[in-house]
Amino acid sequence: xxxxxxxxxxxxxxxxxxxxxxxxxxxxxxxxxxxxxxxxxxxxxxxxxxxxxxxxxxxxxxxxxxxxxxxxxxxxxxxxxxxxxxxxxxxxxxxxxxxxxxxxxxxxxxxxxxxxxxxxxxxxxxxxxxxxxxxxxxxxxxxxxxxxxxxxxxxxxxxxxxxxxxxxxxxxxxxxxxx
Length: 179
Hints:
5 strands
């Protein structure tokens, strides 16, 4: 974990890095605005049952509308060892698709876990929500050393008024896929 934290620190010592790189800008937000430490290895914040039920009910129409799409996407990539998650606009994982064989690889990506940039640093879900766009956070591009085994491809999901309502993320653990 120390080597990753040293790399983050080295990049952020270059004051112009945040202007040249969206990744460095996200790392800076994670460190400066959110006070996160890349070397720490806490589990993602997990909502309690009542908090999760409330978050789910606010986004329930989106979750139900996404079911068929989540299922089709999982059929396409599940056998490759991928995990699919749908979050709300606050980065709370609301739904997930994962095989029983890879379930342990994606323990942190579970319903009720909060993957906002403020809670988990640079990551697919949180950073796509923050930036409102599709992106890839590949392995050591994650801010938290705990998550450098994941490669995440995420896209912001928008509501009928064009506001970011959530994120759809496809993640893979390990070295199976390149960026």
